[in-house]
Amino acid sequence: MGWMRGLTTLVLAFTSTAALHGVSIAAAAESTTSMSKAWISQSLPLDNERSLIVPFTIDLLQGTHPCGPATVYLSGQPLRQDAAGRGRAVLTLLPQLNATVRWTYTCVGDTPREQVLDVVVEALNGEVVPDSVVSVVFRQTAPATILEVAGDRIMSKKVKHHVGVLAVEIADEDNAAAGELTAAEKNELRGRLRELELLRAQAKELEMLIFAKETYILENFGEEMEKALHPGPPTDMPPISNHKPDKQPHVVHQSTSSQKEQPITSAKVAVASPYLTPRPFTLPQDPAAYYDLVTALAVAGIAFILFTVCGIIFMHRRMTVSLEQSRRRVNVVSGGGHRETREERLARQAIRREARRHAISEWFKTIFRRWVLGDAEKDAAQDEEQRQQQATSTPQAEEATTMEQELARFRVAATMVGDIIAAEEGRSMERAAVARASPGFTYAAEDDADSLPAYQTDEDDEDDAVVADGFRYMRPSFEFVLNNTSPEEVLSRRNDSDRLGYGK
Known about the structure:
Elements: H1 10-29, E1 34-45, E2 51-61, E3 71-74, E4 77-78, E5 86-94, E6 97-108, E7 114-124, E8 127-139, E9 145-150, E10 154-163, H2 166-173, H3 175-179, H4 183-221, H5 225-229, H6 267-270, H7 287-333, H8 342-372, H9 375-433, E11 465-468, E12 471-474, H10 476-481, H11 487-497
Antiparallel strand pairs: 1-2, 1-10, 2-3, 3-4, 5-6, 6-7, 7-8, 8-9, 11-12
């Protein structure tokens, strides 16, 4: 098992070997018209427990007869055949890894157009291993095409077709038909051929990326590659997609580069990054679910727009009605001729804010006082508030009493003035009715005759009344000075003092 010592360096050296083989294959392909190539990674069993994953290439060049001798290269080494279509040789698959291989060519069908190549690995570095078979179905006539690659231990496979001079072959095989093409058809053919060359360039670039990624995987995960590709029995999880792997859509790497493929001469270039191509974006596998999601989003967007429009209309109408009501209220208060100015509105709003701020501060003060003060202090605060209320109500009661007294005094004064006016009018009438006596001597009346009382007595010396013309006049300031005298007492005094001594 000495050949296993260099197993670590196999993959690193594989890239340079493949590049050298690619140079020889390219040189051989220049003399032909078409070729096809396949990249294969196969698991070669070492014993019942161990296996080795070996990558190699199969190149097919164009031949002249469908079932004639084929020109096939395995990792750049020709697979020649005898008259029976068999061959056997020791081939170098990787550096320090030689394999004893036998192969057989077989034509397919009664009118053969295709062939089958069966390659069997018998030994590795002289040690016999269980047979590992790779079957390749190909057609070598123009264009040379590898149709299928099959095998029970194939880990991965990629097939490439290359047609070099398709237009020349068409012209050589059918000159008459080609000569009948019009100028427009020739231009269309040239355009399609240019598109084909562009697709070939893109395919070359994609194959280089695939080869680089496979090389990286083999270098870093060579031992775990078989486990990853064959994870074991399926789980109970439902499948993500109903499509099989071979039916998945192929994502073409778009590129405008049409340069010829350059061979990879360094392993570092091939394994520079494991992520050489971006992960393709895929839509949900179920189209119905995708369209249901789009429909739901559309309905939600329409509902949101309608709700927003309705809200804007409602707020606009409410603001308009509120402004109209405010305008009407201002017109009613101001008599309809005054409209509130901006300064007045700002002043009113400032007063309202100040009142609101004061109310809020008082409320917070009350809450804080109730929370901080104890029961006794709360009672004291309540008593103080009651005393303030009583002190506030007492001046109001005194003010009401004073007003009543003033009204009573006004009534008394009005009555007195009315009596004076009536007395003056009566006396004037009596003077006019009584005739003037003629001048003469008069004598004093007898003592027992009735006489009028004096105009003034000793009791009238007081300054509270004046007697004149047979009437006693009260000083106007007398009753107004007596603030504590009730109206009834004032009336009784007036009735007692308006006589000329009668009833005393």
